[in-house]
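Notebook, student rotation project (T.W.).
Task set for the rotation: take a protein with a known small-molecule partner, predict the structure of the complex, and write up what can be learned from the model alone. Partner molecule chosen: 2-oxoglutaric acid. Sequence and SMILES entered below by T.W., checked by me.
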Amino acid sequence: MNLKINHVAKKFQDDGFVIVKNFLEKSAVDELEREINRYILKILPTVPKIHVVYESGWSGPLKQFSRMELYDRYFKKILNRPATLKLLEACLGEPVEPLTTEVFYKPARVGSPALFHQENAYFNYMSPYGLVLWIALDKTTLKNGAVHFIKGSHKLGELSHIKTNLPLFSKALPGPPDPLKYPEVPALLERGDASIHHFLTIHRSGPNKTPLNRRGFVLDYRARSAQINQTKTKTHEEYKKEIQRNSGAL
Ligand SMILES: O=C(O)CCC(=O)C(=O)O
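Predicted structure of the complex:
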C-alpha cells in the first residue's frame, strides 16, 4: 500500500494531478451515492441559497452544491476519513486540514462547462496551498464533461484570473498556457475512481451533452501550514457577495 501511496504522491508532485483507480470500492460508492441522494431530498431544500447553484434560475437541474459538512454529519465525517487524509498528506508532503465538500452535478444534456481556472483563485491560500480530491460517481468521458488538467501547470504559480460574474466559476483564466509545454490531459474515470489536483493546477471541464448525469463528489483540503491571504480573501468575498445579491441568493 505504501508503494502505491508513494507512486500517487510522486505523480501528483510532478504533474500537479494524479488519477487514482478504484479509490472507493463499489459498496463505498453506492453508500456515498445514497447519502448524496438523501441530502438532495431532505437537507438541500433547507440550506441557504448561497450553497446551491442550478443550471438556470432557482430550480430544475442542479449544477453544484457545497458546504454539506455544515449541515450533515455524514459529510463532516467523510472529510476526515483516515485513509483519505493519509493519501493527501503524502501528496502535499505535509498534514492537511479539511475545508469543504462539493458536488459538481453536471446534469444530463444541459450541464454547462467549467472554464479554465486554478482553485486558489477561490481559496486564496499561500504556499504550500492545498489540494482537491474529485471522486467520480459516474464514468467520465469526453462527451459528458470530464475534468481536463493542464499537466505541470501547478509550477506556473498563482495566475491572474478575470471576473466572469457567474454564480459558479466566477473567476477564469483568459486561456490555457502553451499546450506544447503544458499539455491538457482529460481525467477519464470509472465510477469510484478519483483524481487529486493541486490548488494551482489549471483545469476545466466540458459540457454534458449526453442523456446521463456526470456527478463528481469533491473534497477540498488546505496544507496545515498554509496561511490565508487576507487581502485577497476580503476582495474575493466582496465580489462573491455582489454576485450572490445579483442572482437573488442573498
Ligand atoms: O466537476 C467539474 O466539472 C469541475 C470541477 C472543478 O472545476 C473544480 O473542482 O474546481
